[in-house]
UniProtKB/TrEMBL annotation:
The chain crosses the membrane at residues 20-42, 54-78, 84-117, 129-150, 170-191, 219-238, 250-269, 276-296, 302-321. It is found in: Cell membrane. Its main location: membrane. This is Ribose transport system permease protein. CDD domains: TM_PBP1_transp_AraH_like.
Length: 326
């Protein structure tokens, strides 16, 4: 008996604590490792440094946007407008950048994204419209505006200084990698160590109980949508800088992939459950899956089938876990 008690009091290792706290995230991390091993066996080129850089550049854009999508889903909402907001923000900034300069152009991009997100949040939180309807409408509006403002053509005449955001280095590390890492660390700290972060979880779990406990529910429902809009603009600013062009058609499918990353990472579409750590694993799982299927020559249409299957399985798993807890 004494030995048993002593064993129970033995401090857990770091990995044991991680698994105990983030069970679903740990399972998804294991799945990611297994997937990487399988793809490496099938195609050794998968682990090449050039391919790893390719995966990182692919997940960077959607990974940044997925942080905002995580916040929205945690409140019990959903944002289908991320692709449209990303497109219209970079188009509007790109149109003024050649004459007004990089600083003004980037500021316009970020401001447009923030304002579009604020409109979403206000309509959902204060006007009490359904998130699905609001963001679906915003997706249509912003995607159309991006196309009309640019005449459906890409913008190429961008200042040389704009290239820093997507190609520049700080102490030998890509600027966008630094931004990516800092944003995920900041989001994790915000959700796990701050009162507003806890309020977001509370609102997603039970908005009425949160209101009765004194939380300004409507105010904290607006924040995730505003942040998502801002992150859409930031992500596409970096991506457009990396590619050297602004494409008004950019953003198509962003909503599906970011929602998939959030759900695969263990978040519940009902709200109140999830983490940015899970989202990070989810977005890499999707990126590795798509990249691996490309390398081994799987048809693009089948790649969509694979992604859709993973999403459905993740939702079914979440449902089974919720039923089991009851």
């Amino acid at each position: 008996m004494t030995a048993t008690v002593a064993e129970q009091r033995t401090p857990r290792s770091g990995w044991s604590k991680f698994v105990a706290t983030y069970r679903i995230e740990a399972a998804m991390l294991g799945a990611l490792v297994v997937l990487a091993v399988v793809l490496t066996i099938i195609e050794p080129r998968f682990l090449s440094s050039s391919n790893m850089q390719n995966i990182l550049s692919q997940v960077m854009v959607l990974g940044i946007i997925a942080i905002g999508q995580t916040l929205v889903v945690l409140t019990g909402g959903i944002d289908l407008s991320v692709g449209g907001i990303a497109a219209v923000s970079i188009v509007m900034g790109g149109l003024v950048m050649p004459s007004a300069g990089v600083l003004v152009g980037v500021s316009v991009m970020l401001l447009v994204g923030l304002l579009a997100g604020l409109v979403n949040g206000i309509l959902v939180a204060y006007v009490k419209l359904a998130p699905f309807i609001v963001t679906l409408g915003m997706m249509s509006i912003t995607a159309s505006l991006a196309y009309v403002l640019s005449d459906g053509r890409s913008i190429f005449n961008l200042p040389d200084a704009f290239a820093f955001f997507g190609k520049g280095n700080i102490a030998g590390v890509k600027f966008y990698v630094i931004v990516f890492v800092v944003l995920y660390i900041a989001a994790h700290i915000f959700l796990t160590r701050s009162k507003p972060g806890r309020f977001i979880y509370a609102i997603g779990s039970n908005p009425e109980a949160a209101r009765l406990s004194g939380i300004r529910v409507s105010f904290y429902q607006v924040i995730p949508y505003a942040v998502t809009g801002l992150l859409c603009a930031l992500a596409m600013t970096i991506e457009s800088s990396r590619l050297g062009t602004i494409d008004p058609n950019t953003g198509s499918g962003f909503e599906l992939t970011t929602i998939a990353a959030v759900v695969i990472g263990g978040a519940s579409l009902m709200g109140g459950k999830g983490s940015v750590l899970g989202t990070l694993i989810g977005i890499f799982l999707i990126g590795v899956l798509q990249n691996g299927l490309n390398i081994i020559g799987v048809n693009a249409f089948w790649q969509g089938t694979a992604l859709g299957t993973v999403i459905i399985l993740a939702v079914v798993l979440d449902r089974l876990v919720r039923v089991r807890k009851r």
